[in-house]
Design brief:
Blueprint: H1 3-6, H2 9-43, H3 46-74, H4 76-94, H5 100-125, H6 133-155, H7 163-184, H8 211-240, H9 248-271, H10 274-294, H11 298-326, H12 332-363, H13 369-395
Helix pairs in contact: 2-3, 2-5, 2-6, 2-7, 3-4, 3-5, 3-12, 4-5, 4-7, 5-12, 6-9, 6-11, 8-11, 8-12, 8-13, 9-11, 10-11, 10-13, 12-13
């Protein structure tokens, strides 16, 4: 069933505002991120460029413990808008300061704002009717990818621009994000609740054990694998496919995702359980990384990129649907905060590990060793996902026969 047939006008307007806002955010992020990292790497070092970006994940991780308390006090819309405004101000200031220390402080606040706004948007989508959630989460994921692809294209215009101009443009995009949130996302009817602690260190408690805990851990590994591709493939291109620009893999994955996102996910989620769809996502990543490791020509890169994108297409919206269906409404804020915690943790570890695995493969003179290691991790996650589905099915009570 499609979203227009199941959502009322307010919900459709909400979905439009969320998708427009998150798309603008991704445009802005994919404009500044590669340019700023390259500029800082040239003026300071690659280590310090990576360290500044690492602090954005520290901010996102810490935000996990504040999300529930802030959202219950302010409501979803106000929480999202203020968090995006914090990102906007921090990003705007990035163009007018100098030095690793100040960049690091602002990067932390950029991550903190993102760590509040992103689960806030997911929390709003989880309130949609159950039959409309697959469409809502899938279009949300597609909006992210459209923005990322658009930002990568637009970023070329600012490749040699002054950082003050660059970050002023990004600041304007995030302000537009705030406007969409204010105009299109409803304030909500629930009265603010100040009883929840502002800082909640027990946000990760209360998750169901067994399959529930496993899926959250699997999500963390997924983001570890995903960012390992983002960091590892440019290094791979530089070392083995120097005849092509390092951005080629992202063009391939971006176009493939835009072409297949809605159709493929809708096809899979109607026929299989979310855990099974997650297993297919991990399996695709395992195959893609094995391809990258098996050959170092341009055509191996092309083939791997067509496959690895299936992970992003299938995993994120299926995990969103699993969470929204697993937890009652009074625990969704905590669940969404936990989702972002595991995502941030996986990204943090993956950012640091991807380069180390690449260096290990080079120093050991075993080309592809880093990719084979990642492929093994992805294959193990696929097996665990399938086992979790079987365990959940076995735990479900048997249907009661009807009386004769």
């Amino acid at each position: 069933m499609t979203a227009p047939a199941t959502l009322n006008p307010v919900q459709r307007r909400t979905l439009l505002g969320i998708n427009a806002g998150i798309s603008l955010a991704h445009v802005g992020n994919y404009i500044w991120f590669p340019i700023f990292v390259a500029a800082l790497g040239a003026t300071s070092s690659g280590f310090w460029a990576g360290f500044v970006m690492f602090l954005t994940y520290i901010g996102r991780l810490l935000a996990t413990f504040f999300f529930e308390g802030v959202s219950t006090r302010l409501g979803n819309r106000t929480t999202v808008v203020l968090a995006v405004l914090l990102e906007a101000v921090a990003l705007g200031l990035m163009g007018f300061v100098e030095g690793v220390a100040l960049y690091s402080v602002l990067a932390f606040f950029i991550g903190f704002g993102s760590g509040i706004s992103f689960p806030g948007l997911k929390n709003i989508l989880s309130s949609f009717p159950e039959e409309a959630r697959p469409k809502a989460f899938s279009t949300f994921q597609m909006a992210c990818q459209v923005g990322a692809f658009g930002g990568a294209l637009i970023g070329g215009v600012f490749a040699h621009a002054d950082l003050r101009i660059l970050f002023s443009v990004v600041f304007a995009l995030f302000l537009a994000y705030c406007v969409f949130g204010l105009l299109l996302i409803p304030a909500g009817k629930a009265a603010p609740d100040s009883r929840a602690p502002l800082f909640n260190a027990t946000v990760l408690k209360g998750l169901q054990v067994g399959g529930g805990a496993r899926y959250f851990l699997l999500s963390s590994v997924f983001w570890f694998l995903s960012i390992s591709f983002l960091v590892g493939i440019p290094l791979h291109m530089q070392a083995y496919v120097g005849q092509w620009p390092a951005s080629v893999p992202f063009w391939i994955t971006g176009l493939t995702l835009l072409a297949l996102q809605l159709f493929l996910f809708q096809f899979m989620i109607k026929r299989f359980k979310p855990g099974q769809v997650m297993a297919v996502a991990f399996g695709a990543m395992a195959v893609a990384y094995a391809i990258f490791g098996a050959g170092r020509s341009a055509w191996f890169v092309v083939a791997g990129c067509f496959v690895v994108v299936l992970g992003d297409i299938l995993f994120t919206p299926s995990f969103d649907i699993w969470v929204s269906g697993r937890f009652p409404s009074d625990r969704l804020a905590k669940a969404m905060g936990a989702m972002h915690f595991f995502r941030s943790f996986g990204n943090m570890v993956g950012t640091l590990a991807a380069g180390a695995l690449y260096d290990l493969a080079r120093s050991a003179d075993v080309p592809g060793l880093n990719w084979f290691a990642l492929a093994a991790v992805a294959l193990g996650c696929a097996v665990v996902s399938l086992a979790s589905v079987r365990r959940e099915a076995a735990a479900e009570p048997a249907p009661v026969p009807e009386a004769a």
